[in-house]
Design a protein that fits this description.
138 residues, alpha+beta, Arc Repressor Mutant, subunit A, 2 domains, 3-stranded antiparallel beta sheet, 3 strands, 50% helix, elongated
Length: 138
């Protein structure tokens, strides 16, 4: 019998982004819920909170942080009742490709390393100038 388990994938690099445990839990739940073709899902804050054992306000806080990090996008939806009245629907979550966020993370790290190397280079030049300049005040 071939097992077709109920699982989702998560790139290893997601752990390099410095997500808090709460952010990671909410992100993982959204990845679990997402449609693999559209990358969208519609769980309520209550549903997410029940799954990851958080209150709705805490889920909302972590959702906002995931939006700021560029890992998800959230849009409100509208529904029309049989009577023709338009009402607010559930939130539509789109799980964005984590590769973009991971690439930005690596770019920031590279920029920091380049800046550090430049600072070290300038420090060496200043040290050398101070050693060669006999007129430096005491």
């Amino acid at each position: 019998m071939k097992y077709r388990g109920n699982f989702f994938s998560l790139p290893n690099e997601i752990f390099l982004l410095g997500l808090s445990p709460g952010e990671l839990a909410v992100y993982c739940y959204l990845r679990r819920c997402e449609n693999q073709k559209t990358h969208q899902c519609w769980p309520s804050y209550k549903t997410i909170g029940d799954a990851v054992r958080m209150c709705e306000n805490t889920v909302s806080k972590y959702i906002q942080k995931l939006i700021e990090r560029g890992l998800i996008a959230v849009e409100p939806t509208k529904v029309t009742t049989k009577a023709g009245v338009t009402r607010n629907g559930t939130l539509q979550f789109t799980v964005l490709p984590p590769q973009d966020v991971i690439a930005r993370h690596y770019e920031r790290e590279l920029e920091e390393l380049e800046l550090e190397a430049e600072q070290q280079r300038l420090q060496k030049i200043l040290t050398k100038q101070n050693q060669n300049d006999p007129c430096t005040p005491l």
